[in-house]
Amino acid sequence: MAVGIFDSGLGGLTVLNAVQRRLPDVEFLYFADSANAPYGVRDADDVFELTRRAVARLWEGGCDLVVLACNTASAAALRRMQEGGLPQGKRVLGVFVPLIEALTERQWGDNSPPREVEVKHVALFATPATVASRAFQRELAFRAIGVDVEAQACGGVVDAIEEGDMILAEALVRSHVDALKRKMPHPQAAVLGCTHYPLLEGTFQDALGADVKVFSQANLVAESLADYLKRHPGMLGRGAPGYLTTGNPGRVSDRATQFLRREIRFSAA
Which of 41, 71, 123, 155 could bridge across to 190 with cysteines, CB 3.0–4.6 Å? Predict the structure, then answer.
């Protein structure tokens, strides 16, 4: 039995690592659309179609529940997939809601009207496609009022991480933080709106300053998934666990092993 985890590339492994620690008895089937990564520079229709195909592949693999461990896919495809109707017994979850629940200090399932929250100035760091979608701001507006969000599109960061060039990635992060601070000099909180970014959480924190609370997704998504499966134990699926990629399995395996510092072996999707 396996739950599906999908990302355009390797960023979702940060989520996978967290959910495996939180749910050691649950098996997972991870799908990386490496041949088409990164999604962050694609238009919304393209991201939707690629995400739809990837989710369908995970459903074919026996996963009844799929987590979009990709902010760009969550932003551009999740609502559209849900509104278009899912096959009976299938569910797709995104990564925005757990993050926003933590930011606004609201419990899962709290459907009360939006209210004022303590944090008033939020910096959002994300891919260009996620920023353009304004999905984060839309979901936040369902839960909170009076929050000023300044979004910074972090071009090049995902590409550098996927290529294993962490020196370049760190330099890009510092440049993007500087650009954000020119627009919002004193953010109270910062949201890392890409599952690649937890690998650079320390760099973000250092560039932002110790007084800025940084929200990263992996552990928040893991807690949210644990809660969901507790309430919906029948969503564990029936497929076998493993790692699938549309890219070169050997190359992706090597990058993934570097990424998680443990051996990961991908098969062709």
Answer: 123
What is the distance between the alpha carbons of residues 231 and 216, in angstroms, rounded to a whole number?
24
> pLDDT tens digits for the chain (269 residues)?
799 999 999 999 999 999 999 999 999 999 999 999 999 989 999 999 999 999 999 999 999 999 999 999 999 999 999 999 999 999 999 998 898 888 888 876 677 889 999 999 999 999 999 999 999 999 899 899 999 999 999 999 999 998 889 999 999 999 999 999 999 999 999 999 999 999 999 999 999 999 999 998 899 999 999 999 999 999 988 889 999 999 999 999 999 998 888 999 999 99
Question: CATH number of 97-215: 3.40.605.10, 3.40.50.720, 3.30.2270.10, 3.40.50.1860?
Answer: 3.40.50.1860
- Topology adopted by domain 2-95+218-268: Rossmann fold (3.40.50)
Query: Where are the chain's structural domains?
Result: 2-95+218-268, 97-215
Q: Which amino acid is at 115?
A: R
Instruction: List active site positions.
Output: 70, 194
What pTM does this model have? 0.90
